[in-house]
Amino acid sequence: MPIFERLPFLGQSMQRYRFSILLTMLLALMVFSPCALLIRTRTFPELAPLLVMLLFSAVLLSAVFALARQRWTMILAGSLTGGTIVVQAVNIALQLEWLAMLQNVLGSAMLVFALALLLRALFLQQRVTFENIAASLCGYLLLGVLWANIYSMLDHIEPASFVLPTSALMEIAGRPADLEFGSERTSVALYFSYVTLTTLGYGDITPATTPARMFCSLEAIFGQLYLAVLVARLVGLHIAHQSNREPPQSGTPS
Q1: pLDDT at residue 252, rounded to an integer
Q2: What CA–CA distance (Å, rounded) separates 67 from 14?
Q3: pLDDT at res. 90
Q4: Do 34 and 187 touch, CB atoms closer than 8 A?
């Protein structure tokens, strides 16, 4: 029995639409994370990293709820999620670079684990449903969040990994622009990640080192492979389901 089914207060509807909930949280992260840049320049700058922490925490907790269906997955996913949230909260108070790096490492580990569980769940499905489609969309968006964390780690290891345009939006309070995921500049990291994932490539932010270029190439490759494989899988399931529903034809046409 999946572990969350033992918690009746969560409700059957939340269980039924768990991937829709995760998709909603991912979209909220994308839509509202740019607000952190605006808050950073206005009256309450200290609320900017807190907003990002709440949004990312909601994504991770929704992923645990949607994907941790066994005790061991619950323990591992819960530990990685809890560790990420605690480290991010401490880093908001202390502002230490190694804490920001640790937060990205833990967050990336959780996202990799969530993607593995999600892909396994998708390939075990035997029919196309609304929740399966929502889960497929979640996987694609989670890839973008994962690579945003990876770019943040690269930027911590080598600050000149990416060349960003000089603008008042990205250079806040005298701090150099970067791709730090988990700070008020999370939306910048997400923007670059999704532009790379979709192979849109505006060119306003460019990788400047060999590791950065390689990870950008890998993200574009993974994005294309994900779409090709998952779309083929969903189409195949739909065709198989429709074939099974059609009544067998009797006799032969004259």
Answers
A1: 42
A2: 13
A3: 93
A4: yes
- Other beta carbons less than 10 A from residue 232's beta carbon: 10
Structural contact between residues 200 and 171, judged by C-beta atoms closer than 8 angstroms: no
Q: What is the DSSP letter of 46?
A: T
Residue ranges of domains in the chain: 3-242
Buried b (16+ CB within 10 A) or exposed e, 103-142: bbbbbbbbbebbbebbbebbeeeeebeebbebbbbbbbbb
Give me the residue label for tokens 């999600």. Answer: 118
Task: Write out the E strands in the chain.
Answer: 162-163, 206-207
Render pLDDT for 85-121 as a digit per residue (tens, 0 to 9): 999 999 888 888 889 899 999 999 999 999 999 999 8
pLDDT of residue 93: 87
User: Tokens 């779409």, residue?
Assistant: 227
**pTM of this structure:** 0.86
Mapped onto helix, strand or coil, the DSSP state of residue 214 is helix
* Amino acid of residue 172: I
Please state, in angstroms and rounded to a whole number, the distance separating the CA atoms of residues 183 and 190.
Answer: 12
